[in-house]
Design brief:
single chain; 530 residues; alpha+beta; Structural Genomics Hypothetical 15.5 Kd Protein In mrcA-pckA Intergenic Region, Chain A; 3 domains; six-stranded antiparallel β-sheet; three-stranded antiparallel β-sheet; 23 helices; 11 strands; 39% helix; 11% strand; elongated
Length: 530
């Protein structure tokens, strides 16, 4: 192979300067005035190939056809159907896949070991980091090659923004093992709809999943990722031929090459750098409580990156568990209240408060004797008792009925089943009426789960504002909005004794409780905590 020349030398050797008026710049997807084929097609297939190559990709070619109006009958377009999904695997496995950049000459590829069950939005992150892209453009996954216009690609959040109500399957709702099931199966990935970088992801082997294995690990690979915005695979191949001395540099190639780093070497591949990048994947939103995952998806950078870092610090993809005796201790105050209400219920005062005798017994059972509550027999003067009663109603354990506080069906069933009661509370959090309260509650839980950051004091309100909530007034950002929005969740955390008292730092069990709540129901059913 001819000797590699530095990019600067190649550009200089091509007699190209930034101000050369003879340069014909070319946009993404192809050279202006330079279709890749100049033949007269003799069949519909050749015509499709010509148009696709000239336009820069099948999606762009379809757009051109649709714009032709009366010159093209849109009824001739094939009906596009949703992809067919496989049933998820019963047990997690390790998939070894090879990712090839279509059309690269010489080949550019990566071999990756990864879990069988990440959702496709997570696989997108793996492909970006494994190949070396910067995630600066849009993308799509498809179960058939992109030249096949009969199958719809999976949708991304940007599709919904561009076309509200669009029909299709969101990539965030599809697991990898629902599109790759057997050795030899392939998935297709397009990045940057201008340059149209097409990738083929082929399943090479399936093996048992080792405990503690990373989400993704690069085994081997070949050659560098092309720089962004360099015109697509055809243009890049020509540039590589020039860099590696196989052809003379053309004027337009020289202008494109001026944007490359001078040290760029298309033959290099650094597996350590790839694996270091894969170690810092964004959190898997499939294992995150939906309220928190929804907040992440609503954010743009840099707020999204900041929140993803906090979620990573909470280690929500790791198993967390508590001893049944610890669970029972955490729900003891709720059991005390449910037993006090009893099967017959408790008549409330005319003002709607618990009777003084009940409040006194609850204060004694909760260890509140000696606190500055006067006689400790007035609910409206005893914050802990009132918060416990309010949260029990919000958790669906108690209800008001004709002036009495009564056990609900769930309350009657769970009063003497502390572990089930504990899980019932986990499943109801974060609490609150409406999405804002649930997202604020999720941040209150994250504040408890991540030590040493003080999320509620520093970034919570800003994150909520970044998600589109109107939290500003005449004095600017309302720094207390996140606290107020998360009140319902905070009442439960107090009732579960996640803090020793109002002024104490969180307990270790409280942090674990918050982390378990912030894991999705799917993760708990995987056996991580139950």
């Amino acid at each position: 192979m001819p000797a590699l020349r530095p990019v600067a030398d190649v550009v200089e050797g091509g007699n190209m300067t930034a101000g050369d008026d003879n340069v014909i710049p070319f946009p993404k997807g192809g050279r202006a005035g330079r279709p890749k084929r100049a033949t007269s097609p003799s069949s519909a297939g050749e015509l499709a190939d010509d148009l696709t190559a000239w336009a820069g990709g099948p999606r762009e070619a379809l757009g051109i056809l649709l714009q032709l109006g009366t010159a093209f009958n849109a009824e001739h377009l094939p009906t596009r159907r949703s992809p067919e999904l496989l049933p998820p695997r019963a047990e997690r496995a390790t998939y070894t896949v090879r990712i090839d950049l279509t059309g690269a000459r010489p080949p550019i590829w990566r071999r990756i070991e990864l879990a069988s069950d990440p959702t496709l939005d997570r696989v997108h992150d793996v492909v970006q980091r494994a190949m070396g892209w910067t995630d600066s453009h849009l993308h799509h996954f498809q179960t058939t090659p992109f030249s096949d216009m009969t199958v719809l690609p999976f949708l991304t959040p940007f599709d919904e923004e561009d076309e509200p109500g669009i029909e299709g399957i969101q990539e965030a709702e599809v697991r990898l093992d629902q599109v790759l099931g057997e050795v030899g199966d392939r998935l297709f990935y397009e990045y940057d709809f201008g340059d149209s970088w097409h990738h083929t992801i082929k399943l090479e082997s399936i093996s048992p999943r080792p405990k503690g294995a990373p989400v993704a690990r690069c085994v081997t690979g070949r050659r560098s990722c092309p720089p962004e915005d360099c015109g697509g695979i055809g243009s890049y191949n020509e540039l590589v031929d020039a860099i590696e001395g196989r052809v003379q540099l053309s004027p337009e190639d020289a202008e494109m090459l001026m944007g490359f780093p001078d040290s760029f070497n298309p033959a290099e591949f650094h597996i350590d750098s790839v694996n270091e990048s894969l170690e810092h994947l964004p959190p898997d939103l499939a294992v995150v409580n939906p309220a928190l995952a929804g907040l992440v998806r609503a954010l743009g950078d840099p707020e999204r990156t900041e929140l993803e870092g906090l979620i990573e610090a909470a280690a929500l993809d790791a198993p967390h568990s508590l001893d049944p005796d610890v669970m029972a201790g955490m729900v003891a105050h709720y059991q005390l209240l449910l037993r006090e209400v009893g099967q017959e219920g408790v008549a409330l005062t005319s003002a709607g408060w618990l009777p003084p005798a009940v409040v006194s017994r609850l204060c004694a059972g909760m260890g509140l004797d000696g606190r500055p509550y006067g006689k400790g027999n007035r609910e409206n003067q005893t914050t802990e008792v009132h918060g416990l009663r309010t949260s029990a109603v919000e958790l669906g354990l108690l209800r008001k009925y004709r002036g009495r506080l009564m056990l609900t069906t769930a309350g009657r069933r769970l009063v003497e089943r502390p572990v089930e009661l504990w899980w019932h509370i986990v499943g109801r959090l974060p609490l609150g009426n409406g999405l804002f309260a649930q997202q604020a509650g999720a941040l209150r839980l994250l504040d408890l789960a991540v030590p040493g950051v003080a999320i509620m004091d520093t970034v919570a309100t800003g994150l909520l504002a970044g998600a589109g909530w109107a939290l500003t007034g005449a004095q600017g950002l309302d720094e207390w909005a996140a606290y107020r929005g998360s009140d319902a969740t905070a009442r439960v955390l107090r009732g579960m004794r996640c803090w020793g008292d109002w002024l104490s730092p969180p307990t270790g069990n409280g942090r674990i409780f918050a982390r378990i709540v912030l894991q999705s129901t799917w993760q708990r059913q995987r056996g991580g905590t139950a």
